[in-house]
Amino acid sequence: MDNEIQLISDDDGLAVIGNAADVERFLISECLPSKDLGTHRLKSAFNAGAAAAQAGSDIVAESGRWVKLTRESAQVVKKYGLRKNAKTGLSTGVVRGQKGQIRGFVEFTRGPRSLLTNPAALANTAKLMTQVAMQQTMDEITDYLAAIDEKVDDILRAQKDAVLARMIGVGFVVEETLTIREKRGRVDEITWSKVQDAPTTIADTQAYALRQLDALAEKLEGKTKIGDLAEAVREAEPAVREWLAVLARCFQLQDAVAVLELDRVLDASPEELDGHRLGLKATRRKRLEYIARSTERLVARMNAAAEAANSKVLLHPTKSPAVVRSSNQVVTGVHDFHGRLGIESGRRSSEARRWAEAAAEARDKALETGAKGIGAARSLGSETLEKAGSVKDRLSSQVTERARRRRGNEEKRDEEG
User: Fold this and answer.
1) Which residue has the higher pLDDT, 308 or 283?
2) Inter-axis angle of helices 162-184 and 226-268, to 10 degrees?
3) Roughly how many angstroms between the first and final C-alpha of the chain, as a whole number?
4) pLDDT higher for 176 or 417?
C-alpha cells in the first residue's frame, strides 16, 4: 500500500490511515493537526474479521492519525469526495500519491488489503475513532477545570445531597477501570462490573446541576429593582461557575463510561458494535442539547439583566456597571464551557453604559420634551387669549345693550309724565 492513504470520517473526526511516512506527508500537505489513534488498537482493527486475517500481517507497519473535525478538516473531506454510507454514517475513500506526494483522490478498489472493504475492521476502526473523540473532550474538560481552578470534589462534598456525594466515588471507580483497560487492552465482564451502575449516579448529578442553573435563571427573572438585581447577579456568578464545573465533570465521566462500554461490546458482542456505537453517539447529542438549553436560558437572563442595568445607570451609576460586569463574566464562562463540550455558542457581552452618556441622553430628552412643552404652552396661551377676547366682546355687547334699553325706558316715562 505504498503512497496510499485510507480516509474515514464521521461526525467528530477524520482518520488518516496508511504508511507512517505517507500519513505524515498528507497531514503536513493539508496543514492538519492530529493525534495518534494508537498502534496496538489500530492493529486490532486491521485484524478484525476473517476476511482480514491473512492481510493483517501485511498491514502491521501501517499507522493511523485522528484529526478533529473542524471547518478546515471538513473541507478536506469535501475536497477528496469521500462517500458516505447511510447505514454506518461513515464517509470513506482512498487518496493515492506518487513519489512521496499525495496528489488526488482515487476510488478504492475491493482488494483483500483494503480496510474499507472489511465491515468488521471498519466498525472496529469507527469505534476507535469515537473513543479518541471522547478522550479528546475528556482532556479538554480536564484543562477547563484546571483553568477555572474549580475542585469539583470539594464542591460535591459541600452539598448535603447523597447523590452528589456518591459522584466522587463513581469518579474514582471510573478512572481505576480506565487504567485496567489500558493495561489489559480490553474490557471483560469483571472489569465492566465495576462501572455498570455508574451512569445512573452520573445522570442524577447532572440533572441536579441543571436544576441549580435553572433556579439561578428563575431568581434573576423575578428581580425588578436594580439593588436586588445587582445582589442576585453577584451571588450567581460564583455559583454558575461551580455548577458548570460539576456539569463538565459529569460529561467527562459519561464519555469515559462510553469508552469502556464500546470495548465491552466489542469483547462480548462484536456483531453489535456498529449499532451500539451509533446509539451512544445519539444519546451523547441529546445530553448536549439538554445542557445547551439550560445554559443558554441562563445566558439570556444575564443579558437581560445587563440591559436592565444599563437602562438605569443614571439613577444607579455604581450598581449598574457592576451588574454588567458580573453578567459578562457568566456569559464568558458559559461560552468557554460550551467550547470544551463542543456546543455551538453565540457569545454576546454587554458594554456597560457610562453615567455621562446616560446623562447626556437624558438631558437631550429633557430639552426635547421642554421644547415641546413650551410650544404647547404658547399654543395654549394664544388659545386662552383668543377665548378671553371673545368673552370680553360678548360681555361688552351685553352691557351696551342693557344700558341702551335702560335709557329708552327712562325717556318713555318722562314723556308720559
Assistant:
1) 283
2) 40
3) 151
4) 176
> From the DSSP assignment, how many helices (H) and strands (E) are in the chain?
12, 7
Among 8-22, 58-72, 125-139, the range of highest mean pLDDT: 125-139
pTM for the model stands at 0.77
Burial class (CB in 10 A: 0-12, 13-18, 19+), 173: middle
The strand pairing partners of 5, in sequence order, are: 95
How far apart CA 102 and CA 83 sit, in angstroms, is 19
pLDDT value at residue 367: 45
Cβ–Cβ contacts within 10 Å for residue 255, how many? Answer: 24
Tell me how crowded residue 333 is: count the other CB atoms within 10 A of its CB.
18
What is the enclosing helix (H) or strand (E) of 10?
none
* Helix residue ranges, H only, 47-113: 71-79
User: Higher confidence at residue 277 or residue 18?
Assistant: 277
C-alpha 135: how far from its chain's center?
Answer: 19
Tell me the three-class secondary structure of 105-142, residue by residue.
Answer: EECCCCCCCCHHHCHHHHHHHHHHHHHHHHHHHHHHHH
Q: What is the average pLDDT score of the chain?
A: 78
* Residue ranges of domains in the chain: 4-122, 148-353
Nearest-CA neighbor of 245 among 290, 209, 200, 292? 209
Helix (H) or strand (E) holding 94, with range, is strand 91-98
pLDDT tens-digit readout, 229-264: 888 888 899 999 999 999 999 999 999 999 999 999
Q: How far apart are CA 96 and CA 7, in angstroms?
A: 11
* DSSP-based three-state secondary structure for 87: coil
Residue 68: strand pairing partners: 13
CA-nearest of 339, 364, 378, 366 to 251 is 339
Percent above pLDDT 90 for the chain: 39
- Distance, CA of 256 to CA of 253 (rounded, Å): 5
State the pLDDT at residue 303: 86
For range 101-120, the mean pLDDT: 56
SS3 16: strand
What Rg do the C-alpha atoms of the chain give, in angstroms?
38
